[in-house]
Amino acid sequence: MKKDAILSYDLGTTGCKASLYDIKGNLLASKYSTYETYYPHDNWVQQKPEDWWSSICNSTKKVLEKSGVESERVLGVSFSGQMMVLIPMDKSGSILMDEVMIWADGRSKDEGKLVEDEVGWENFYHRTGAGMPIPLYAIAKVLWIKRNYPEIYKKAYKFVGVKDTIIHRLTGKFLTDYSDASNTGLFSIKDKKWDTDILDAVGIDAEKLPEVFKSTDIAGKIQEEVAIEVGLPAGTPVVIGGGDVPSAALGAGIIAPGNAYNCIGSASWLAVAPDKPVFDNLMRPFTLCHVVTDRFVTQLAMFSAGVVYEWAKDQLCNYESLMAEKEDKDVYYLMDKLVGSSPAGASGLVFLPNMRAGGAPHNNLDDKGALLGLKLSQKKGDILRAILEGISLNIRIMAEAIEKKVNNSFKYINLVGGGSKSTIWQQILASVLNKNINILTGQQEANSMGAAIVAGVGLGVFSGFDQAVKNFINVKRVVKPKLEEAELYSKLYKIFQQSYGSITPVNSKLSNF
Asked: What separation, in Å, do the N-terminal and C-terminal C-alpha atoms of the chain show?
């Protein structure tokens, strides 16, 4: 049977999306399988690795069934995965913790302080490219395990990333790629190898870290003992893939300097693809190795984006959820209609979106969300609009900081991620940024599309990334800013920035309340 399909996975924060493409770049089908996130204590954010595997298996079978494509036609698989965590595995490949810290977990403040004391923050940043708060990085998480569960640290044969746990289950190989390794706080961004000076300084054993390969390298083939469970033939090649941020950059068509993309998922980030790392000690953009060989991805990321709109759905929109189920509609469509009933500026509301602490532009783990300017005359639509505007205003801060650092004013920004399907959010963002927003044909599949392109290049389907991007990525529509809205948002932008500074001392006190 002819092998003419590529299966890619995006192991995100809220679930796994399996996407099936043909070799011309056409999306044949996609299927999303969710998993739980657990918050047992303040700043603890955990998931169960077994849930990742179950989602891989479920989404594989469902996407093949949905597409009508026989599994034998799949010529290879690859991955995009959430980053900033290393998971302990013993030599047999068993994961040593039922629940593991994911990227948003900020419990390891003491370990972050240890890294800062032993390495120096500026030295750490310029060696690793890691600009976010140190407790969020894998270096601090591994040290937390070593301090609190020394028997697990001792028993660990390798610490690997999220996607790498699945790769091991499929192939039996312990490994990672440059993009994932470069977002751990343990990797030299310039030398492209584990930084032994940092490892020695903080007391992490170098032999516990996996070998690092290019994203396009083939890890191995699916083993017979898992083939039936995952729903793919034994012997199917597994291409390593990369972290979600660089995978999304590729899926958004950002493979060279001068262009930018914004991803709105549960978090939101804005990124460019320079040919060398970019540093700024104040705003602290972080730089990763791109899945595209010899390129980098520099970005700023806020943690509270789509996850906040999801919170609003769960806490404020029970009626809309019931109506959506009754009318067989998407609840977000009904929420967006409410947003449309509110004028630009949300009737005087300002929303600070920092409900998940940390992230750009302030990198403050004491941050909290806030809704300012409430009056009895305001309605639910005003609150929902303020949420979308607040997230967009925060994205503007990131865009201006990146533009300043790379000395380039972007004429347009490619928009990807689940939030990009909201037409009213597209318009709000265009007017807030006062820039053209490109809506791509596969904007909701950017991470898995990037992984599929990596697989195609690694398997020799495409001659290189340039050819693959032309096959896969097209601009479907351009959203232009509205002049009157853009002027209003420029005024609101100043109030938004002032509001953050005013409420920061209160949030600091609440963190210790």
From this structure: 64
Block residue for tokens 């989602």? 55
How many independent structural domains does the chain possess? 2
Q: Are strands 211-213 and 175-177 parallel, antiparallel or unpaired?
A: parallel
Burial label for 135, CB within 10 Å (0-12, 13-18, 19+), is: buried
Extract the runs of DSSP E, i.e. beta strands, from 293-443: 296-302, 350-352, 370-372, 412-416, 436-440
CATH code where residue 14 lies: 3.30.420.40
Domain assignment of residue 343, given as a range? 307-393+421-434+479-511
Residue 161 has a CB neighbour count (10 Å cut-off) of: 29
**Both 220 and 356 in a single domain?**
no
Given pLDDT bands bounded at 50, 70 and 90, which one contains residue 461? very high
Q: Which of 237, 174, 243 is nearest to 211 (CA)?
A: 174
Q: Return the beta strands (E) in 48-194 as ranges.
A: 74-81, 87-89, 100-101, 158-160, 175-177, 187-188, 193-194
Contact 467, 457 (CB under 8 A): no
What is the spatial distance between Cα 244 and Cα 217, in angstroms, rounded to a whole number?
A: 17
Express each pLDDT in 208-247 by its tens digit: 999 999 999 999 999 999 999 999 999 999 999 999 989 9
